[in-house]
Amino acid sequence: MKIDHDNPADLSAQIAEAIRDSIISGAMIVDERLPSESDLAEQFDVSRSTIREALKRLAAQSLIRTQRGAFGGAFVNRLSYDDAREQLITTSTLLLSMNEVSFDTACEARFALERACASMAVERRLDAHLDIMEREIARQSDADLSDEAFCASDVTFHRALVDAACNPVLSYQLSGSIEAMQPLMNMITFTARSRAQIIEIHSELTEALRARDTQAAKNTLNRLESYTKQLAHAVMSAKSKKRH
After folding, report:
1. Predicted model pTM
2. Is there a single domain that holds both residue 19 and residue 97?
């Protein structure tokens, strides 16, 4: 592992990237202990404080964990889908909120993946998945449910639909696009979204899965995508007019 001391990039970032590459390539395996801070400082010809900063970066990415005591140190972490999903949601939310990724692009990706999941969910869904979807529809029908709670229920409903495909990789990929869109969907809910229409769409999706009707599920998701984009554009246009 080498770094370029003449490179203007932060040295700790270079070191973190070098160690990260070793982990990803398999040169460093799960649960392997990293060299001590002193050894790493000597290896990279930097101060121990720079090494500590690099290790903090790796820990923030859940790539390493630290342990104290006689047998302590930094170790290559065993990353779970749950850990990775939370990181993806955070990153995707930031990209969307900072306009690095447009709403239409995120929306297109979400529904393309969700339609792919729907095909598998029709074949693989369990009663437990349908139970979750029906429970959330019941929650959404509560007139006293807050806007924030309605949005959270919406996310839970669609996560159940995705999870019904029984493919953890797809569940991971979709978590970013579904949950990252929640802040903007909150704004839409407060101003324009019809709860009755969303509940109707959710009911149709649930029935399509129950009937194992792939085309009906895809058609319903197509309608939801069109409705979501239409509302988003209307809300963003109204906000733009107010600013001017």
Report:
1. 0.70
2. no
According to DSSP, residue 63 is labeled S
Contact between 67 and 73 under an 8 Å Cβ cutoff? The reply is yes
Answer with the one of 27, 52, 76 that is the final residue of a domain. 76
Q: DSSP secondary structure string, 4-62?
A: -TTSSS-HHHHHHHHHHHHHHHTSS-TTPBPPPHHHHHHHHTS-HHHHHHHHHHHHHTT
Exposed e or buried b per residue across 205-242, where buried means at least 16 C-beta atoms within 10 angstroms of its C-beta: bbebbeeebbebbbbbbeebbeebeebbeebeeeeeee
User: Looking at 53, 76, 99, which one is the last position of a domain?
Assistant: 76
Domain of 26 in residue numbering reads as 11-76
pLDDT tens for 101-158 read: 778 888 888 899 899 999 999 999 999 999 999 999 999 999 999 988 998 899 899 9
Helix (H) or strand (E) holding 86: helix 81-97
